[in-house]
Amino acid sequence: MNTLKTTGGSLLLILLLASNLGMIIERLIWVETDRTQSNIAGIILDAPKADFGEGMVTISVDKMNVLYVGIDNPITVVASGVKKNQLKLIPGDGLAIRKKNDTGQYMVTCSKLGIGTITVKNKITGKTKNFEFRIRQIPDPVVRLGGRKDGLMGSEEFRAEPGLTVGENLLGVNCKIESYTLYYTCKNCNPIELQGEGTEFIGDILDLIRRADSGDQYAFTNVRVRCSGDAIARRVNGLAFKIK
């Protein structure tokens, strides 16, 4: 167990703000990198219609107009003046496509961020058209303790919490907590810093949670989770609580 020599209840607020600022900076770095590769729209860079002479074809992404790494992305091919069975979908680098049914619905999976290309080919005429889509990371989930991210909590309620929870994100994808740092301060003790893993409180973390008394403060910072498709764990929101 490591102890910090810094004192004062404001320490937890500073730590929480620093943790959340770090999360924001990581997101900004990723967005700026992505912007160098594409514009900001969902379906991007090209007109979403292909003229095959005798008809038109469009591709729509069924969820949020973008593709996400690590999950099945449903798309729909709409054809006018050309039969769907005349069309062949060719995935670009980092994409895989499988046919869902005969009504023009497909599932697309992506292995990397950036821009993905799906080529539609008319098997009769040989004509092709490229459709380009932005590929994003799955949105961040929200980590909570007892359904909350911060605020006042009674000592008995706090001590009864079995661990942190990570909710489903907007796409319904489950994510898992990998690690976090817990800072603890009380009226008559030096601040304590512990490293935790997973959602369940165990070992020294559990002992510290069970010490909760009026006036004590807890901050969970540098919280990292891994979602489907993540190459490494991502930093998400921190939490801060004061025991009443």
Automatic annotation (TrEMBL):
Which part of the chain is the Gliding motility-associated protein GldM C-terminal domain? 163-243
What InterPro entries is this protein classified in? GldM_Ig-like-2, Motility-assoc_prot_GldM_C
Domain spans labelled Gliding motility-associated protein GldM second immunoglobulin-like = 57-136
Recorded superkingdom: Bacteria
Pfam families the record matches: GldM_3rd, GldM_4th
Q: What is this protein called?
A: Gliding motility-associated protein GldM C-terminal domain-containing protein
